[in-house]
Prior knowledge:
Blueprint: H1 2-23, H2 32-46, H3 49-59
Amino acid sequence: LDIKLFHPLAHYYLEELDKFLNNSQHIGNLGKHNFFNLFWPAFKCVITPKNILSGWEAVRL
Length: 61
């Protein structure tokens, strides 16, 4: 599951974080309150039924 779900999730989350920092010119107030707004687009992109099934198939469970 790590390779099929969590690694891509971390990748897309970091992309969202990078966009946030670039849009704020690295002076934005980044805090816990920003987490969900940055995490949710990455989650929707990665955590899909197809990817979940693929992850379970990869670990053969």
